Amino acid sequence: MTHLRAAQIEDEMDGDTLHEECGVFGILGHPDAATLTALGLHALQHRGQEAAGIVTFDGTQFHTEKRMGLVGDHYTDPATLAKLPGTISIGHTRYSTTGEVALRNVQPLFAELEVGGIAIAHNGNFTNGLTLRRQIIATGAICQSTSDTEVVLHLIARSRHSSTADRFIDAIRQMEGGYSMVAMTRTKLIAARDPTGIRPLVMGELDGKPIFCSETCALDIIGAKYIRDVENGEVVICEIEADGSISIDARKPNKPQPERLCLFEYVYFARPDSVVGGRNVYVARKNMGINLAKEAPVEADVVVPVPDGGTPAAIGFAQASGIPFELGIIRNHYVGRTFIEPTQQIRAFGVKLKHSANRAMIEGKRVVLVDDSIVRGTTSLKIVQMIREAGATEVHIRVASPMIFYPDFYGIDTPDRDKLLANQHADLASMCKFIGADSLEFLSIDGLYRAVGGESRNDTRPQFTDHYFTGDYPTRLLDKNGDNPGPKLSMLASKS
Amino acid sequence: MTHLRAAQIEDEMDGDTLHEECGVFGILGHPDAATLTALGLHALQHRGQEAAGIVTFDGTQFHTEKRMGLVGDHYTDPATLAKLPGTISIGHTRYSTTGEVALRNVQPLFAELEVGGIAIAHNGNFTNGLTLRRQIIATGAICQSTSDTEVVLHLIARSRHSSTADRFIDAIRQMEGGYSMVAMTRTKLIAARDPTGIRPLVMGELDGKPIFCSETCALDIIGAKYIRDVENGEVVICEIEADGSISIDARKPNKPQPERLCLFEYVYFARPDSVVGGRNVYVARKNMGINLAKEAPVEADVVVPVPDGGTPAAIGFAQASGIPFELGIIRNHYVGRTFIEPTQQIRAFGVKLKHSANRAMIEGKRVVLVDDSIVRGTTSLKIVQMIREAGATEVHIRVASPMIFYPDFYGIDTPDRDKLLANQHADLASMCKFIGADSLEFLSIDGLYRAVGGESRNDTRPQFTDHYFTGDYPTRLLDKNGDNPGPKLSMLASKS
Amino acid sequence: MTHLRAAQIEDEMDGDTLHEECGVFGILGHPDAATLTALGLHALQHRGQEAAGIVTFDGTQFHTEKRMGLVGDHYTDPATLAKLPGTISIGHTRYSTTGEVALRNVQPLFAELEVGGIAIAHNGNFTNGLTLRRQIIATGAICQSTSDTEVVLHLIARSRHSSTADRFIDAIRQMEGGYSMVAMTRTKLIAARDPTGIRPLVMGELDGKPIFCSETCALDIIGAKYIRDVENGEVVICEIEADGSISIDARKPNKPQPERLCLFEYVYFARPDSVVGGRNVYVARKNMGINLAKEAPVEADVVVPVPDGGTPAAIGFAQASGIPFELGIIRNHYVGRTFIEPTQQIRAFGVKLKHSANRAMIEGKRVVLVDDSIVRGTTSLKIVQMIREAGATEVHIRVASPMIFYPDFYGIDTPDRDKLLANQHADLASMCKFIGADSLEFLSIDGLYRAVGGESRNDTRPQFTDHYFTGDYPTRLLDKNGDNPGPKLSMLASKS
Amino acid sequence: MTHLRAAQIEDEMDGDTLHEECGVFGILGHPDAATLTALGLHALQHRGQEAAGIVTFDGTQFHTEKRMGLVGDHYTDPATLAKLPGTISIGHTRYSTTGEVALRNVQPLFAELEVGGIAIAHNGNFTNGLTLRRQIIATGAICQSTSDTEVVLHLIARSRHSSTADRFIDAIRQMEGGYSMVAMTRTKLIAARDPTGIRPLVMGELDGKPIFCSETCALDIIGAKYIRDVENGEVVICEIEADGSISIDARKPNKPQPERLCLFEYVYFARPDSVVGGRNVYVARKNMGINLAKEAPVEADVVVPVPDGGTPAAIGFAQASGIPFELGIIRNHYVGRTFIEPTQQIRAFGVKLKHSANRAMIEGKRVVLVDDSIVRGTTSLKIVQMIREAGATEVHIRVASPMIFYPDFYGIDTPDRDKLLANQHADLASMCKFIGADSLEFLSIDGLYRAVGGESRNDTRPQFTDHYFTGDYPTRLLDKNGDNPGPKLSMLASKS
């Protein structure tokens, strides 16, 4: 019995949310490797709540545990950690994008290679994963999962290089897309970030031992020191030498390109206390609220965040506008798993399962609701209705990011394009009417860029990737655009 | 596998928290009785996360389901609700005060009486429960649980009155303490509140059918209308008549006394959007912060709430002081159950499992931490340490309630008296030093009274009960002070 | 996930079987009390497979564990036994006669009395249980289960006697029916058998410590010595004295009557290696087969037992007739629980899920099938069909007990009277035709009496009870025949 | 929670037993494919009780379900079968030879090939599996399990042939050892048996649709017709043609050799009602008992089988010797899983957890115990002791197979060679003394050959394989004897 990210439950029901699939963590040479990995994954839990896996190597054998549910449900009791001995460890926490919740898809994946075992975990998506899978199968490989990670394992296995590091780089050169990856062998911990740097990955250190993880909050929980971001296109290979010392070798196998971090990490995914690309996420979100207050001011009595995502921007909006910040919506944190498949009667209570209006702060007031983003708009509609029923005289919505028009192909699970609010309406007025608000405004692209990086968008060389807003994809999309789909796969489905 | 109130996890480890044991809900004559009870209990989940039970009557037979875990984990799927047919229903959600988490202690309890079946659920505690239990056993009754509710059932069964209502009142007259109770028979829904009105209980209405529940938030979730509070010492008996209409009969069997609601409902237990005793809880908490800012001002750069309990008071403190409100502590909502019995290694990470410092809002700043209350102080100590490690130049703690000196006997689970911070130190300076803060201040009793009710404490006839602060208990304490403990009970322990 | 008595599975589907509800075990003063109780219950598992419970007393507190499923699934691992400390223990294994499989009905039951705690487990049924329950409720008691054991607890609690032993005897005097009972207090182990001695109960000894259990096989497994049968109408009270010695006090509170043990213990329920009423069960069953061969001889090629119940009688039949004994039916021991609620497709395979014909021993042969008893006949019908399909030229059925005409009221769960084969057909020929056999014969009443006790039935004072065959009930049937049913109970149903 | 083959439990504790690893089943073109596969696996449950898996293809997609535990625990409820749509199905039931009970090792295994998906299940073992695995890994494949089946998948994937059938045969040509295999693609069901025919495999037919399974008992349960044995070295390819008809293509890719079926199938593994190699197993076992009575007669009062394995031979022994056959040992069928890891106290009760002496048939008698085989002898020792304690005056052991001296490499899990009774003692007298019997005799090799096939062993061309008795292995043993072990694998261990 597990709990989903509470903030997504009623959105879940309507598909009115975005999901990022994964968080990764790896550590080399530490006696408490598995425990530290469990704690790191716990701090990264907001990036995926459905399942978590850890692999360790104890000097002789690899060990793995994979579990459905929260890290804290399984990986903290002595019995489980006792099954994960060793000083090298990588871990992964995931959100399942499909109905398939089978353990066999839970990362890290492991393979026995000629040069020894290797385990890999990744966050993100390969835009040529299917193309590569078909090539591999055509030359006699067998694929036992639907995971892109398995493709990476095959590419490594097939490399003609003798060292694992060279093989890994060989594989990396063939992959396209947006990803952050950690891998481990019997002596190495390897980290890699895609050439454009779409997904984040940072390097840290604890007791002189190297750590790689998706966000800095996973360093903070264990008291590890932040060293630097893994650079876009970089592969960092850490190895325990014969004398016990650790060597670090950083390479850039691909042609250098400018970094373009995913803006949605700032808007929604990353934890507010994380530092992503050198910028504090909470500050970026508060700046979005400040810029939004400047771009789309409104006369009102209270600024109310849509919890919890909208809170930092709402604080910024309130400070910039001088309108008081109040908790006008109270969130119920005790939303259990089965609310996802409730009876029709219960489903009808929708948004109220998670949110309730705090009437004393709403009644008779002009309310500004601040949210982080709008995907389909169905949740916004229900929240506006709830606020009106609580007696608000006016309801104004301010969204701390631009309108979403395009799908993502780098690991964010987006609804079908025609389900997006922005694509269902001709103009802002129509959207506002659909949602039932008195006014509706989105932050501008430039407002967002300035909130995050201090400067407006450089249209020639954009500082970030913003394709869901603009359609400007930072890589080619081979699987999507390829004209040679090859034989249809008849992959195995396992319901349990 | 269940999830505890996330806000209590690391306190759990140290026992540094207060628990209220229960929330209750009842509805009469509604075709969706069980579904509405499940939703009501979901809204009351903050009053108890360990287990929940529902009883219904379908015109012929009583039905019950009891489950460990969150309401949303079990009571929303069609299969479970299908086992609870009928139009009368009561439910209960509980926090276990003891190590015993056995289902047999989960309420509501049921008994077959001569006049028919009766089921009862209550929130609170009887101060003469053990005394009554011994009297009952001495006259040939058998007790199969350690629950006070079983004692109520015995008193009802032994009454010489013929009507269930009269029997219920007969039982009520013998009970002392602080409690709110809902009961149901084949045709009746009965609600009762203790003579002093220590625990809250409200009456509502949906589709013309009466509802009783611990807080108004359970009415809001189902769109029910608030009618009035059940008065202190009142017993309200609702009955379905032969013609299908519902009669309501309100009685006051005990000698009238002034109401004294528990102040901790305002300080900590009730949900911020609930209206308790006619007062919005969020507003009361914000007022506590405002009064605290006046009583104990401090020069600082940011006001940081200890989430989530301290947030409303921190907003009030910030507004009153003009110091900016910022989320300087980020809370991890994904804390799983087994963190309660973690390995020693993981236990060492303590407060960080749930809280992390948001360095960008802390570093180089003078920080005011606002918390709702301090019990043992062990958590405060760790939070101060965490804030200092994040680079704060000063850390000032402001507590939005007075110092706690005395135990509760009305349903709040308090640590041993000598574990309370206020009893371990001679003065405020010593406490402040223990916690490691630059300054530490508590709200005054009068400041709290004014925040809640607008007026200072009337020392002759206090408007609320504040015994944990003052030692002024609103009832006699028979079990505690009785000099005739009787034979020692050798009650049954069941570990599973 | 538990396993039912494999021999009953496909009968289960058709209700074509008899069930006995329980086995009991108790031991006093032994350091391994819980472990020995678990082993004793394991040996008594054939008397009930659905759930098992154990209570112990550790000198200060009572402890209990109750589990659905086999004893060997739960009660043998160190963690469970560690929860059952103490030197006094009783245990119970049960078959559920109703759809209610809730743990709250699993015995032993416990109650806190004025004189201290008491736990009781029983096998059998009270013929005035409902009558007593109504009397008790009418005088102010509360009943929380539907179990007769709870009634016993109430009678004990209400007794005016001061000693538990006297109270127990007081209660026994009011109970009618067929039962064997073990009870324990803080210092005593008490055993009781009904006045007619319908259900078996034996006394044994291990390391000088007294044991009571349903059958001698529970003594054999732990290497305990058989002392004697508890006599009909006897109450045996064993107590640990202050000096650690154990006193034994045997009483006969009811008017003496001749013993009449249940013949079905010999026909079907007891384990073949048990000694019941001084007679080896296997020998009795073999004698039934021998007598059957004499009463109903047949020319045939092979004697084939219907496994496993029919095997001893088939061996006797083969030895007496000179026809070879062969395993013509092979039994599948791996029948899992869910076969009880299978898909319709699987249900259609019926008897084959458990039994298969061993064609090499059947084809072209005249077959005598020997079974222990026939209840509804639906299983016999399918087995005959299976044997014919395997190529038998003739199929003769010989049943090692008489025809069943009447229901039991002493703890055997019998189908509705009109579902019994003997009540659905005018004569033997019609039954034989229904089942599809070439001939069908039942053992005579006298043949059965001689097989068990050596002598024909004494019609004036029958040596056993044989009411299911003859309608001659050994006690009055108050609940069944009472003309004053009182108010209808609206008992609580719990599905889980 | 699952149940092991009860007959192995206490042997389990001492490793005093042989295990066969698997049973397989496949069907093509039937609308109830998954249901029939579940029933077939249920009938084959004696070949493996730890886990079972089923794969189906529904015309578009492959589906699989894999579960720990008995077939009847999982695969008969509608919900599970609903997840397995389609008309082609294969299934597998296994006994785990190692501590690894992870689901990822449960067969059938599936792989996506260039030509489409393929699923494979096998019974037996490859004597060059490790050698092949190293070759495959050396050329860039990744291995994700420790299963030989994965090696077969790789060989198929790497074949240069275009048709799956040709690829399958290509793979088969490279495998050495003893195995029976079923495989399925989108349109085909393929069966294969090793060149020597060590493991059994039969072909049947239901409603005109082909079936392959390990034993005929899996045909009997579903009412399917036995067609013929798959011949040694044969590959049978059944395919659904475009018009819905089914084509059958039988090939023999390897050089023809004489068949040598494993004698242990007759001695112990196969179900008594199965026909293996054209011979009824029960008859073979009875013949073993008859031959044993002739070879090693003894004066005694009763013949007692060690249940259940020794029963057919005991019947033969009794018939040939004229000594009465009696159930002198009663078996407890309700042995739960956790008896495998019991407390030390419970472990001490050893053989009694499953077996008890039926004193009435033992006391004062000269007893002949007939068992099917002796592996380590530790169980025999305990049984003799139990029989003596029950009062036997003499105990003679007769074993219906020869002494075991050598390990198996074809799928039977044998203890270390020096743990075998026959290797621990210089002669029969020493073994007899160790076991504590008055006499001990084993069936001769020729006696066994005549019991099974009617003729003595042809030492030039043995009719069966009997390597565990004689050391005469029917194939080369590449993995065992290879002098080039290659790099040590660091395979992944998963404890759950």
Automatic annotation (TrEMBL), chains A, B, C, D:
<dbReference type="InterPro" id="IPR017932">
    <property type="entry name" value="GATase_2_dom"/>
</dbReference>
<dbReference type="GO" id="GO:0009113">
    <property type="term" value="P:purine nucleobase biosynthetic process"/>
</dbReference>
<comment type="pathway">
    <text>Purine metabolism; IMP biosynthesis via de novo pathway; N(1)-(5-phospho-D-ribosyl)glycinamide from 5-phospho-alpha-D-ribose 1-diphosphate: step 1/2.</text>
</comment>
<dbReference type="InterPro" id="IPR029055">
    <property type="entry name" value="Ntn_hydrolases_N"/>
</dbReference>
<keyword id="KW-0658">Purine biosynthesis</keyword>
<dbReference type="InterPro" id="IPR029057">
    <property type="entry name" value="PRTase-like"/>
</dbReference>
<dbReference type="Pfam" id="PF13537">
    <property type="entry name" value="GATase_7"/>
</dbReference>
<dbReference type="InterPro" id="IPR000836">
    <property type="entry name" value="PRTase_dom"/>
</dbReference>
<protein>
    <recommendedName>
        <fullName>Amidophosphoribosyltransferase</fullName>
        <ecNumber>2.4.2.14</ecNumber>
    </recommendedName>
</protein>
<dbReference type="GO" id="GO:0004044">
    <property type="term" value="F:amidophosphoribosyltransferase activity"/>
</dbReference>
<keyword id="KW-0328">Glycosyltransferase</keyword>
<keyword id="KW-0315">Glutamine amidotransferase</keyword>
<feature type="domain" description="Glutamine amidotransferase type-2">
    <location>
        <begin position="22"/>
        <end position="241"/>
    </location>
</feature>
<dbReference type="InterPro" id="IPR005854">
    <property type="entry name" value="PurF"/>
</dbReference>
<dbReference type="Pfam" id="PF00156">
    <property type="entry name" value="Pribosyltran"/>
</dbReference>
<feature type="active site" description="Nucleophile">
    <location>
        <position position="22"/>
    </location>
</feature>
<feature type="region of interest" description="Disordered">
    <location>
        <begin position="476"/>
        <end position="496"/>
    </location>
</feature>
<keyword id="KW-0808">Transferase</keyword>
<comment type="function">
    <text>Catalyzes the formation of phosphoribosylamine from phosphoribosylpyrophosphate (PRPP) and glutamine.</text>
</comment>
<dbReference type="GO" id="GO:0006189">
    <property type="term" value="P:'de novo' IMP biosynthetic process"/>
</dbReference>
<comment type="similarity">
    <text>In the C-terminal section; belongs to the purine/pyrimidine phosphoribosyltransferase family.</text>
</comment>
<dbReference type="InterPro" id="IPR035584">
    <property type="entry name" value="PurF_N"/>
</dbReference>
